[in-house]
C-alpha cells in the first residue's frame, strides 16, 4: 500500500488519532482513508459518528493530557515526575517544541476533520439524519474551540491571531493552504456550528451522548469566553431552567455515579478504552499532583468536602477524582456539568454589573452552599469586582479542578501575570514549530515566540 510521511497538522487533518508522536508520522493518502472509512448509508454514518467520541478519548486529549495541561499551566497542579512536557507546562513557559502541544494540535484537528468528513459525505450522498449532523457540528465546534483557547488569542476579539478554521474535509495538499483566521472569525464559526446543532439535536436521558442541552451549555461557555455576557446568561439560564438536570446532593456524587443528574455531557470510558488520567495521577510518585500550598491546603483547612477527592501523602497530593490506583481506567471525563453553568452565569452577571454583585453571588453561592453551607460568600466579602474575581477563581478551582479549566480561567480573568508571574505573550500557547515549518509560513506564529 502506498504511503507518505506528513508532519503533525496534516496528520491531524488526515484523521490520525495518536497518543504520542515522533518528528514525523506515517499516514495514508486521503483516497485510501476514504475507501477504508467509507460512509455509504445511514448505518455506516452512525458508525462514523461513534468514531468522533473515540477521537476525544485520545490520551493527549480528553483521555488525559489536555485536562492535565490546563491544571499544570494554571498553577493548581505540579509536575512531580520526570516528563519534560509536564515540567514545561508547570512553569507556564511552553516552548514551541513541547510534545504535548504537538500532540494535542493533532488531536483537535483530527476531531475537526473527522467531523468534516461526516458532514461532507452526508451532503454528497444526500443522507438525512439530524442526530448525526448535530453531533458532527458539535464536535467540529468543540475541536475548534479547544484549539482557539489554547493556541489563539481568545481574549482579544480584534486579534488576527485566531486559529486555522476548517469546514471542509482536507487532504494533504489542501491542508497546506489553510491559514489562521481572526479571533472573531474563529468564534463566529464555532457559534454558527453550535447554533445549527441546537436545532438538530434533541434531549435524551443518556448523559454520555451529545444532546441539545449539551449544545446550549457549550454555547454558554463559548459566549463567556468571547465576552458576550448577555448570550452567556441566556444559554446558561436555558440549561439551569431545564428540570432534567439538577445539582447532586453531594459534590462527590458525580464521580461516584456515572451519568448522574448533574452531568450534562460525560465522555464515557470502559475497560477496553480506558483513560490515561489515573496513570498520571495515581502512580507513586505521580507524574502530576495537586499543588499543596495554594490549592489543596486552603480546601482542607475549610473542611471542604471537595478536598476529599485528593490524598495528601505528606510528600505529594494525589488526585483521586478518576480513581486511586493506576489500574482504574474506566472513570469518565466530565466535559460539561451543571455546577459549571451556575458559575458561568455568576461570572457573566458580575461582568455586566460590576457595581452590584448581588445577583452574581446568588449563583455562586448555589454552588458553594452544597460544599460549605455554613460559609456562604457575603456581599461584604466582595467589596469590588476584583475581590469577586479572586473568590470566583477559588470556587471554580475547587469545583472544576482537574477537569481542564484552570489555565483558561486565569487567562480569561486577567490573572495569569499576577498568579503565575509570566510575560503577557505567554497567555497563549505557541503554535507547534513543526506546524509553522510544514505550512511554509502560511501559519503565523503567535507574537513573542
Sum this structure up briefly.
The protein is mainly alpha-helical and 449 residues long. It contains 20 helices and 8 strands. Among the domains are: 1-201, Alpha Horseshoe (Serine Threonine Protein Phosphatase 5, Tetratricopeptide repeat); 277-319, no CATH class.
Supply the CATH architecture of one domain. Answer: Alpha Horseshoe
Query: Helix/strand/pairing class, anyone?
Result: mainly alpha
Provide a count of the helices. Answer: 20
| Strand content range | 5-15%
What is the oligomeric state here? single chain
**Main sheet summary:** 2 strands, antiparallel
For the secondary structure, the number of strands is 8
Give start-end ranges of low-pLDDT stretches: 1-36
CATH class of one domain, please? Mainly Alpha
Q: Any idea what the shape is? A: globular
Mean residue pLDDT: 91
Protein name: Outer membrane starch-binding protein
Keywords: Cell outer membrane, Membrane, Signal
Organism: Flavobacterium circumlabens
Subcellular location: Cell outer membrane
Amino acid at each position: 500500500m502506498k504511503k507518505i510521511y506528513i508532519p503533525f497538522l496534516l496528520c491531524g487533518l488526515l484523521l490520525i488519532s495518536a497518543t504520542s508522536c515522533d518528528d514525523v508520522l506515517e499516514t495514508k493518502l486521503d483516497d485510501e482513508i476514504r475507501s477504508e472509512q467509507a460512509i455509504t448509508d445511514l448505518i455506516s454514518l452512525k458508525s462514523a459518528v461513534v468514531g468522533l467520541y473515540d477521537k476525544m478519548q485520545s490520551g493527549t486529549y480528553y483521555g488525559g493530557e489536555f485536562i492535565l495541561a490546563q491544571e499544570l499551566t494554571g498553577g493548581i497542579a505540579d509536575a512531580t515526575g520526570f516528563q519534560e512536557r509536564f515540567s514545561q507546562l508547570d512553569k507556564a513557559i511552553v516552548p514551541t517544541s513541547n510534545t504535548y502541544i504537538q500532540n494535542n494540535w493533532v488531536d483537535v484537528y483530527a476531531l475537526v476533520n473527522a467531523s468534516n468528513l461526516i458532514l461532507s459525505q452526508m451532503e454528497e450522498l444526500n443522507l438525512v439524519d439530524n442526530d448525526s449532523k448535530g453531533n458532527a457540528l458539535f464536535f467540529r465546534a468543540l475541536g475548534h474551540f479547544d484549539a482557539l483557547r489554547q493556541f489563539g488569542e481568545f481574549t482579544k476579539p480584534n486579534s488576527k491571531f485566531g486559529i486555522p478554521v476548517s469546514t471542509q474535509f482536507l487532504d494533504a495538499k489542501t491542508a497546506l493552504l489553510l491559514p489562521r483566521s481572526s479571533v472573531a472569525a474563529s468564534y463566529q464559526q464555532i457559534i454558527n456550528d453550535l447554533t445549527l446543532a441546537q436545532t438538530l439535536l434533541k434531549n435524551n436521558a443518556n448523559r454520555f451522548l451529545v444532546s441539545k442541552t449539551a449544545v446550549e451549555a457549550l454555547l454558554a461557555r463559548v459566549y463567556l469566553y468571547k465576552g458576550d455576557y448577555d448570550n452567556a446568561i441566556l444559554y446558561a439560564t436555558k440549561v439551569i431552567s431545564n428540570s432534567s438536570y439538577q445539582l447532586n446532593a453531594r459534590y462527590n456524587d458525580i464521580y461516584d455515579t456515572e451519568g448522574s443528574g448533574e452531568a450534562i455531557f460525560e465522555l464515557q470510558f470502559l475497560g477496553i478504552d480506558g483513560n490515561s488520567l489515573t496513570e498520571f495521577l495515581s502512580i507513586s510518585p505521580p507524574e502530576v499532583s495537586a499543588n499543596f500550598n495554594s490549592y489543596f491546603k486552603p480546601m482542607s483547612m475549610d473542611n471542604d468536602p471537595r478536598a476529599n477527592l485528593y490524598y495528601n501523602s505528606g510528600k505529594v497530593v494525589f488526585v483521586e477524582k478518576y480513581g486511586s490506583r493506576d489500574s482504574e481506567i474506566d472513570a469518565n471525563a466530565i466535559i460539561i456539568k451543571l455546577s459549571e453553568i451556575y458559575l458561568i452565569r455568576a461570572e457573566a452577571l458580575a461582568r455586566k454589573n460590576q457595581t452590584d454583585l448581588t445577583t452574581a453571588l446568588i449563583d455562586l453561592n448555589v454552588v458553594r452552599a452544597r460544599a460549605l453551607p455554613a460559609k456562604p460568600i457575603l456581599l461584604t466579602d466582595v467589596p469590588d469586582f476584583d475581590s469577586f474575581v479572586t473568590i470566583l477563581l477559588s470556587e471554580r478551582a475547587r469545583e472544576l479542578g482537574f477537569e481542564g479549566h484552570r489555565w483558561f480561567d486565569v487567562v480569561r480573568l486577567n490573572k495569569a501575570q499576577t498568579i503565575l508571574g509570566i510575560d503577557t505573550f505567554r497567555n497563549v500557547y505557541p503554535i507547534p514549530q513543526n506546524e509553522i515549518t510544514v505550512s511554509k509560513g502560511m501559519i503565523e506564529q503567535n507574537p513573542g515566540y
